[in-house]
Amino acid sequence: MFALVGVAYAQTPVPDKPTVKGVQDQASIFYYADGKREIGRIGMRREIVDISKIPPYAQDAVLAAENRSFRTDPGFSPKAITRAAWNNMTGGAKQGGSTITQQLAKNYYSDINNRTMKRKFQELFISVKLEDEMDKSQILELYLNTIYYGRNTYGIQAAAREYFGVTDISKIKKDQAALLAGIIQNPNRDPGDPKNLAWATERYQYVLNGLVTMGKMTETEAAQYKQQLPKLRKRSADNVYAGQKGYMLRRAVLELERQGITEQDISTMGLRVHTTFNAEMMVAAKNAVEKTIPALNPQKITKKIEFGLVAVEPGTGKVRAIYGGRDYLKDQFDNVWASQVQSGSTFKPYVLATALKEGHSLRSLTDGGTPRYFLGPEAKTSPPGFKVRNGGNYGVVDLVKATQMSINTSYVQTALQVGLPDVIKTAGSLGVAEDQLEPDKDKAGLALGQSSIRPVEQAAGYAGFAAGGRYYQPRVLEKVLKSDNKTRYKTLKYTNRAALSPDIAADVTYALQSVVKPGGTGAAAALADGRPVAGKTGTTNDNVASWFSGYVPQLSATVSMWNVDRKTMFVPGYGAVTGGAVPARIWKAFMDPATRGMEVKQFPPPANVGQQTKWVTPKPTPTPSASQTPNCRPNRPDWAQPPECRDEPRPGDDNQNKPCERPNQQDCNPNLPPTDPDALEQWCRFRPFHQACRDEESPGPGEPPRPNNRTNTVQTYDYGRLDDD
């Protein structure tokens, strides 16, 4: 018999790795960009610590609770294991080995669901071999890092954090260590639950008495601790995702998975995930959205109005701050990455960049009159002729003025001239999802932001302007390390590309700076320290959604708000919400603290790329005679002005009675229909209701109706309120 036992002992090795699944699993820790402050933990709540970091009195407390003779016993109790094996085999109450070494052998190396005598002998043999091959400190270290403490925590460090908020086990207090040790016997009885108070008190005092018996604590000291239990924290497991942390953690996990790191890896490997989120900027984002305009505090108003804020670092794509929603525990929908909202006039910079790419300059002239009718590609599938209006009649303006005042007619004209497909390509090169723009490729409303865009796309796209035309994929991960927080676990890969030349980006930025200067639609976004700002406002039809996207050289940010019921947003004191009134102020409220202490950098000067294109010819400046002074009234609309004050060119001298037969011809009157058929077709695109553009003939068999045959049923497309900033 003894010979058989000896053979079995010899054939039972101590496994190099634990055989019980999950016994060494650890939660992954997510940090802010500083690498010190935690955002939260995901997965198995265990932190492996070295025995040298666990104070001797904390080690002794566990021995007092579980195995007071641990330092001197052989690692097993023959009587206890025989009794436990018999009860388990006969269906009696389950019992485990009485020593810490035996508990370790069972929990760490054995199959706890195997109730056979063979398993019991394996535990015994492993216990003996553990004692032979390891010293007591090594055995205790394994035990303290694997034992379950309740509240979904494993190991003494995770338990100290959960129950007492102790982040460094070396700083745990004696009374706290005693209560933790008492929990081990029945970890499912939470000592923080009032109904378990009597049991927790009994276990706590049992440990203190044991410490006295072992000579590790005096009677006086124990009596002092017995007066009351140490103060416990409330259970925190459910609060990991509370507030903005849930949006940060969820985005980080999705990005990890896209980098090839699985959810199981995250839950079990104890990774140290360093994110790009700046803790101070996160606070600034929350305060900006919730405190700038009290009447719009998302925590108090109806859920029908939603907000999204995101800040991206130019030149890296690192996301520094977000406001993803009111509270992740209440609403998991991410307003930064998941929402798709009509962008309004914040889309116009992509039209401007396209015009500059195609050789036109900021000095190019456009028609800023209102209303104006256009016949563009949309006529292929929709009735021809759509009306575009502005907030005012601006006459002939260059692209800088058109940008500063967000002039719709100028931008529709520009977009049709350069081609809507090219505009889509430019926006796509700067990170805007082209599949969201393609449905509008034949609709001139694309130029005014009728397509839906995610806030993170706008922030990253504008960051491309700030980065000299180079687009960087937005990212929330800085690095991923192993559990030692030193060794790199995986190299992260992100894309970047040259979307625009630095000169074109400089010219776009120059135009966007005018928006934030006095007189621009986004003047409310000017920062307190006077540093240069470039940006753009945006407001959609009926003020259903409004935006402000802007940047300084080191940081780009976007603020978006919208009514989920597609109704007008109205705020007392502000009226119908526009991008220049509310989002611009929220943007400023965020950027002022976000840029505090940041070097004040200047934007590059304009490069003045391209050549001036005159898509409309300015009227000659009249010279008043001594006997007649023009009675111009600047606040009157164009139609109410005397002829000599109107923006529309008038026939007169210098060949003004001659029509323009070719593009950019200056010695002619652009309001007269050309005689060349090709030139007339182009001219009629902008004047579909002019008599010269109307075909009086009936359509032939199978032909679609011609404009004159549907004048009574023509649908007028009114894009005049896509931007009332």
Question: What is the compact description of this entry?
Answer:
The protein has about 725 residues and is an alpha+beta fold.
Write the layout of secondary structure elements.
Blueprint: H1 2-10, E1 28-31, E2 38-42, E3 45-46, H2 56-66, H3 78-89, H4 100-109, H5 117-133, H6 136-146, E4 148-150, E5 153-154, H7 156-164, H8 174-183, H9 197-213, H10 219-226, H11 245-258, H12 263-268, E6 272-275, H13 279-291, E7 305-312, E8 319-323, E9 341-342, H14 348-357, E10 365-367, E11 372-374, E12 386-388, E13 396-398, H15 399-404, H16 408-418, H17 420-429, H18 434-437, E14 452-453, H19 455-466, E15 470-472, E16 477-481, E17 488-490, E18 496-498, H20 502-516, E19 534-539, E20 545-552, E21 555-563, E22 570-571, E23 575-576, H21 583-594, H22 677-684, E24 717-718
Parallel strand pairs: 1-6, 3-5, 12-24
Antiparallel strand pairs: 1-2, 4-5, 6-16, 7-8, 7-21, 9-14, 10-13, 11-12, 15-18, 16-17, 19-20, 20-21, 22-23
Q: How many helices does DSSP assign? A: 22
- What spatial order of strands do you see in the largest sheet? 2-1-6-16-17
Number of strands: 24
Helix-strand makeup class? alpha+beta
**What is the residue-averaged pLDDT?**
82
Largest sheet: 5 strands, mixed
- The Cα radius of gyration reads 37 Å
Helix content: 25-40%
Pfam family, one: Transgly
GO biological process, one term: proteolysis
Biased composition (Basic and acidic residues): 644-661
GO cellular component, one term: outer membrane-bounded periplasmic space
